[in-house]
Amino acid sequence: MDKTTSGWINGFLGMVIFSGSLPATRLAVMDFDPVFLTVARAAIAGILGLGLLLIFQEKRPARSDLLSLCIVALGVVVGFPLLTAIALKHITSAHSIVFVGLLPLATAIFGVLRGGERPRPAFWLFSCLGSALVAGFALTQGFAASPMGDLLMLAAIIVCGLGYAEGAKLSRRLGGWQVISWALVLSMPIMVLLVFTNLPATFHGIGRPAWLGLAYVSLFSMLIGFIFWYRGLAQGGIAAVGQVQLLQAFFGLALAGTLLHEKVSPLMIVVTLAVVLCVFGARKFAK
């Protein structure tokens, strides 16, 4: 298997894992405060990441890598989880998932700015088309009904795209799981402190779905998914493999409909199928 194909496979596996993130977050914020959820998932994943680093006796990153690790931490450990958790207090997970269609474009842009990649012009055409379809859908589904939730999702997409691109660039030297583990460990002291300062007054009344949501985002969304995702971006290219995330809407909507019983409109499905075609077009012209 060549490196590019391996990159697309790893990226696809990471995307499938991430597709459960927003539905799981939606479940968790039904009973947990968004700030507590954000710091708790980061602290739990940080402890697991530290354990992996100690077990495999990984070498400490160079001092020159610290800035990049901080950017990764701010983007995917704190920024995206916190902004999406707050957003999901205002909008449904099905609605929020549509915004994920903007993430590949944000990742590609930061891949150029931070990773030095240069996709062909046709790549940008398909990437922008897919993002425009998603953004247009979001606007037709009631932006005015919850501007706060939509704006929070847009901010989350921007910081996440930066975190993805920065982490992928660093993964070329350190390895995928090592990057997310070090980013988690770097932020862990603050996250653990914030867990105790944001503890709920009581855990009585917090339902099983919320606990399951917390477990999923802590283990899969915050750690395991990144093992595949960063490896895929590093192997296949940040801009190219990042387009796989357009498919996340399809998997996420399926989960939102089946697990949360949220309404998935025919238009949502049409838009999702259209962006799938854009993924294939972007892949063809990525290099």
The number of distinct β-strands equals: 0
Shape: globular
Please tell me the total number of domains: 1
What composes the largest sheet? none
Spans with pLDDT under 50 lasting ≥5 residues?
A: none
> What structural class do the secondary elements suggest?
mainly alpha
Strand content: under 5%
Q: Total number of helical segments?
A: 13
Q: Give the ordered list of helices and strands.
A: HHHHHHHHHHHHH
Kindly report the average pLDDT value.
89
Rg is 18 Å
* Helix content estimate: over 70%
**Head-to-tail CA distance between termini:** 19 Å
Labels describing this entry:
287 residues; mainly alpha; globular; EmrE-like; transmembrane
Question: How would you concisely characterize the structure shown here?
Answer:
Belongs to the EamA transporter family. This protein is mainly alpha-helical.
Explain this structure to me?
The protein is mainly alpha-helical and 287 residues long. It has one domain. The protein is 78% helix and 0% strand. α1 packs antiparallel against α10 and α3 (34-55) packs across α10. The chain is globular, with a radius of gyration of 18 Å. The mean pLDDT is 89.
Question: What's the layout of helices and strands?
Answer:
Layout lengths: L2 H16 L2 H8 L5 H22 L10 H22 L5 H7 L3 H13 L5 H20 L6 H28 L1 H22 L10 H29 L1 H5 L5 H12 L6 H19 L3
Helix pairs in contact: 1-10, 2-5, 2-10, 3-4, 3-9, 3-10, 4-8, 4-9, 5-12, 6-8, 7-13, 8-9, 8-10, 9-10
InterPro entries: AA-Vitamin_Transporters, EamA_dom, EmrE-like
Keywords: Membrane, Transmembrane, Transmembrane helix
Protein name: Transporter
